[in-house]
Amino acid sequence: MSAINLLKELLKASEKAANIARVCRQNQRLFSLLVQEKEKDESNSRFDHDFKTLADCLIQEMIKYDIGKQFPELRDNIRGEENAKFTNTMGESVIVTVTDYPENTIQVLEKILNGDKEAASALVDEVYRDVELDTDALELPTDSIPLDNNWSELGIWIDPIDGTAEYIKGEEKLTKFPNIAAAGLKCCTVLIGVYETCQGTPILGVINQPFADKVSDQDQEFQEKYSGKIYWGMSIGDLKFNNIAPHEPDARIAILSPSEQSKYVDFIRNQLKYDVIYSSGAGYKILKIATGEAELFLLSKGSTYKWDTCAPQAILRSMNGDLFNLQDTLINKSVKKISYQDRKVTRNMGGLIAYQNIDKLREFLKL
Question: Which of 18, 135, 149, 326 is the most exposed, having the fewest neighbouring CB atoms within 10 Å of its CB?
């Protein structure tokens, strides 16, 4: 069993996901058909209105299909954020599925898209496209890395588009630090994380940022073109690999949610002397800790889920950092890592705190 083979398939799936996200976003007529409000039982309590898009559902089912086809023993352990049910403008409920037969997928998408075969075909082309990876650019390890686990002892969490609200609005807002966005498409990420089911420990993570860089402004079709970036990390036993270059931040930065409680903001700003900035997307914020562009991520509310954190936590662990339960860490003064052992618990109830450097976490606890 090779961890590199699994990582390659995750990277390919993430890039196909990014392509689907870009295709859906570039066609305004198509995009208006793709957005739907979630049912109450599947929405996030943070939002008065929580939305999913066809891109979310299609990406999730595509990743399940691709990874499950390559690793059949893993298939039943692949889970994601979205319910695959989508309702078209006629009120007809359709289950988004990806199978061995592209024509079946086209038929499903046509129903959702009110019979628009051209749009359905364009999306299906991306779902079944063969993606080539530049393994040199991605800095993949050349040696084989064995996995101690059987495939059936691994689980995968997918967040097909983390930051769906930003994906829908698309309004770019920057912070005073040029490499960190406050809101908009830059905050959207595709998250795929692998964990050991027995210990609940994340071991492989891929974060794909589909809209990392704008390569052209609006053209005659009112389309903006973007290119993406892919980040990955692996932490298996004592072996740790990733493709993230060391980075010295411009300042001592804490990255927080815009809705963070003022008592935490004041403490971080006044007692810890951090430069506080606000940004959207849990995956994006934790990514900025991994890249070293921010030092501290803290979220006091239990408003994230395992699909938000599995991939970025695996990347942090590959850098000797980690993601911790904030309330346990503060109350018990014991460093309790986020775990994926209990399949029934999907919410990170105690909030989060992330550092790339564990010594910095210990300094935080002393205060």
Answer: 135
Q: Which of 9, 56, 166, 295 is catalytic?
A: 56
Q: Mean pLDDT check: name the lowest of 93-102, 122-131, 166-175, 358-367.
A: 358-367
Concerning whether 56 is annotated as a catalytic residue, the answer is yes
Q: Are 352 and 312 in contact (CB under 8 A)?
A: no
329 a catalytic residue? no
Q: How far apart are CA 215 and CA 54, in angstroms?
A: 25
Sheet containing strand 322-325, edge to edge, reads 275-278, 253-256, 296-299, 352-355, 322-325
pLDDT at 71: 95
Measured distance CA(207)–CA(190) in Å, rounded: 6
Q: Is 161 a catalytic residue?
A: yes
